[in-house]
Amino acid sequence: MKLMFKQRLFSWLDSYDIYDENGNTVYTVRGKLAWGHKLEVYDRFDNYMATLNERIITFLPCFDIQINGQTMGTIRKEFTFFKPSFSVDCNGWRVEGSFLEWDYSILSSTGRTVAIIEKQLLRLADTYIIDVMEGQDSLLALMVVLAIDAAKCNN
C-alpha cells in the first residue's frame, strides 16, 4: 500500500493530506496549537484516529504516539555529530537509512521491511511516498514518519 504524504502549502499549523495510490484521501493530519508539535490524525470520514505529541522538556526532540487513546510508542532523535539518527520504541520497530537525504526504512524486530519512505524532491511543499508492506501497519508507520519530519523541522 503506497501513501503520499503531502504538506499543505498555506497553513498556520502543520497540516498534511495523506493520499492512496489512486489519489483518494486516506488520512488528514491537523496541527494543534500547543507547546511543541501536536498533530492529530483523522480518517477519510473525519473520525479521530491518533495523536503525535512532542515532549517539551527534553534535550533532543522526543515524540509520543497515541492511537485510540493508548500510547503505542516513542520516537527520539539521538545525539550524533554528523548524521541524524532516531530511536524507535514502538512495536519493536527500528528506523534505518539516510536521513540527510530524507530516505529511510522502517524495519521490524525480525528485519522485515515495514515501510520504505522517500522524499519527493523539487516540490513546493514537503511530499513523501510511504510504501507500507502491510495495510494494518499504515497508521503507525505514518505516525513514525510524522515524528521524524517534525524532529527534522525543529532544526
UniProtKB/TrEMBL annotation:
The lineage of its organism: Bacteria, Bacillati, Bacillota, Clostridia, Lachnospirales. Belongs to the LOR family. Pfam families: LOR. InterPro entries: LOR (IPR007612), LOR_sf (IPR038595), Tubby-like_C (IPR025659). Transmembrane segments: none annotated. SUPFAM superfamilies: Tubby C-terminal domain-like. This is Tubby C 2 family protein.
